[in-house]
């Protein structure tokens, strides 16, 4: 591990000194000053920060005060300017949809930005598709938060490459960040059909001290999306991390609310350039959501299953509780395994009661990586690629120090 942390701190120094985008970044000190509750909530915030206040009965009467997050987002110019939105405590029942390209910070007001449990803001939506009663429409409609340049680019679609996205679709947001916010889709308290809390495509998105909760398909990291999550909590049951893009989860908790499908269900596509699209879970915990449900889950939850054979996911240096199946990952189905020599369903130095070496070998679908095999994926900068060129190192938008 020393080599990884060394390379991360080197990168953060490099980013601060040389990346033009980081010059725009809000320092941690300034961010904390803005998030802290003060008599004038905007005290300590960057100039022109917008305020969202669920409690404000006639918010629009005041300049720069909004009663919903989406109304604040929609008031922003569709350009490359850096913008900030401070959100006061409350439950916001709405879908938030960000299409603008410029850096955008969504900040939750909090007395302790280092503690997820102290988050005061929850954004909630109630929608699902493909259930017994909903009818079927694209998963994109269901999401609580969407960051994508167009609706079509955010759709999941079907088939090996999903819904066609027109070639002239621009990149969406290149530096979206959310701090201390909870995103929930509570359509049903069990897995019945896709019910997204986050949908992001053609965008770079960072989440810090955020929670994402639903039961099925909770997080969609779609086409050409790069997403980084640190110190977050993701609670789900079935295929709750899925997509076509690249997701790095660091120092976070994955909470299993029951077992269904797999934790990860990635669909790599081989129609683009050579890529590192996949989901990487690093230095995190994979555990039953609570102790009441844990005993019934022992040995039953799969780390993942291949949405198609180009699935790539790696759990690295991560704790697994006893809920995990002896085989680790599973094939999609017995008659439709979707496993071939492109499939990378892997672990590197996972540990805890969920790690069973004999079980992994007997199961014959999980790759146990050597250090050499892990190296090409071993840091966010090695897996986040630039739009179109496919070059790696697209990580100036990552906050290494949240
Ligand atoms: C609503 O706005 C008006 C005009 O700015 C102000 O006088 C009034 O106090 C506000 N009411 C509330 C509940 O904020
Ligand atoms: C906005 O920023 C992106 C990414 O840095 C850049 O590619 C694009 O040309 C910029 N657009 C304008 C209008 O400056
Ligand atoms: C936000 O999520 C965390 C983690 O689940 C939880 O402890 C906290 O109470 C939540 N806050 C709100 C306002 O929902
Ligand atoms: C989910 O949202 C879509 C799009 O807005 C809507 O057509 C559908 O009726 C909603 N479904 C439910 C179950 O609310
Ligand atoms: C998001 O907003 C864009 C622009 O207003 C709109 O075209 C798109 O349909 C919206 N997407 C969703 C999922 O609501
Ligand atoms: C979005 O995709 C649908 C289905 O493929 C297509 O009918 C529609 O024309 C597309 N819309 C745009 C704006 O590209
Ligand atoms: C434990 O988690 C399950 C699944 O999310 C939930 O239904 C149940 O209410 C939770 N129990 C407790 C005691 O929190
Ligand atoms: C690419 O994926 C498609 C669909 O899964 C498959 O038919 C095709 O053989 C693959 N091509 C290569 C080179 O793997
Ligand atoms: C993968 O399998 C195909 C045939 O199914 C074979 O042609 C190819 O050489 C294999 N590639 C590797 C890297 O093993
Ligand atoms: C490990 O996996 C094997 C199946 O390959 C199983 O027989 C054994 O009971 C497992 N051990 C534990 C502790 O679950
Ligand atoms: C393991 O899986 C591979 C395909 O990935 C297959 O060729 C091989 O026969 C399997 N081995 C056993 C012992 O089932």
From TrEMBL:
This protein's UniProt keywords: Aspartyl esterase, Hydrolase, Signal
Keyword Signal among record annotations: yes
GO biological process terms on file: cell wall modification; pectin catabolic process
Its EC number(s): 3.1.1.11
Pathway: Glycan metabolism; pectin degradation; 2-dehydro-3-deoxy-D-gluconate from pectin: step 1/5
Signal sequence, start to end: 1-25
Keyword Hydrolase attached: yes
Name of a matching Pfam family: Pectinesterase
Domain Pectinesterase catalytic: 176-378
MF term (GO), any: pectinesterase activity
PANTHER family hit by this protein: ACYL-COA THIOESTER HYDROLASE YBHC-RELATED, PECTIN METHYL ESTERASE (EUROFUNG)
Family (UniProt): Belongs to the pectinesterase family.
Name listed for the protein in its UniProt record: pectinesterase
Lineage: Eukaryota, Fungi, Dikarya, Ascomycota, Pezizomycotina
């Amino acid at each position: 591990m020393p080599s990884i942390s060394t390379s991360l701190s080197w990168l953060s120094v490099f980013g601060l000194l040389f990346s033009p985008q980081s010059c725009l970044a809000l320092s941690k000190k300034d961010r904390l000053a803005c998030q802290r509750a003060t008599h004038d909530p905007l005290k300590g915030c960057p100039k022109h920060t917008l305020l969202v206040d669920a409690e404000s009965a006639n918010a629009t009467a005041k300049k720069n005060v909004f009663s919903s997050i989406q109304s604040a987002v929609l008031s922003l110019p569709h350009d490359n300017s850096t913008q900030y939105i401070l959100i006061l405590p409350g439950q916001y029942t709405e879908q938030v949809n960000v299409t603008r390209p410029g850096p955008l910070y969504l900040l939750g007001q909090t007395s302790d930005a280092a503690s997820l449990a102290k988050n005061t803001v929850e954004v909630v939506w109630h929608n699902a598709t493909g259930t017994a009663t909903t009818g079927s429409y694209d998963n994109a409609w269901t999401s609580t938060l969407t960051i994508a340049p167009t609706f079509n680019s955010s759709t999941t679609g079907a088939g090996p490459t999903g819904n066609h996205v027109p070639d002239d679709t621009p990149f969406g947001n290149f530096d979206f960040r959310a701090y201390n916010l909870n995103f929930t889709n509570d359509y049903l308290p069990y897995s019945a059909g896709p019910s997204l809390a986050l949908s992001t495509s053609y965008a770079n998105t960072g989440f810090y001290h955020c929670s994402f909760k639903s039961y099925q398909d909770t997080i969609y990291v779609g086409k050409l999306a790069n997403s980084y999550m640190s110190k977050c909590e993701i609670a789900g049951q079935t295929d709750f991390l899925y997509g076509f893009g690249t997701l790095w989860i660091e120092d976070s908790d994955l909470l299993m609310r029951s077992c269904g499908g797999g934790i990860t269900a990635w669909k790599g596509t081989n129609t683009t350039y050579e890529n590192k699209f996949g989901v990487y879970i690093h230095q995190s915990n994979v555990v039953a959501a609570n102790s009441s449900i844990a005993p019934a889950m022992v040995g039953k939850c799969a780390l993942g299953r291949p949405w198609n054979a180009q699935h790539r996911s790696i759990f690295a240096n991560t704790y697994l509780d006893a809920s995990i199946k002896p085989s680790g990952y599973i094939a999609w189905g017995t008659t439709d395994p979707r496993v071939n020599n492109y499939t990378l369903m892997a672990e590197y130095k996972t540990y805890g009661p969920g790690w069973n070496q004999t079980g992994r070998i007997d199961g014959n679908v999980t790759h146990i990586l050597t250090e050499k095999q892990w190296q090409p994926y071993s840091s966010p900068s090695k897996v986040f690629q630039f739009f179109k060129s496919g070059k790696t190192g697209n990580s100036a938008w990552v906050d290494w120090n949240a």
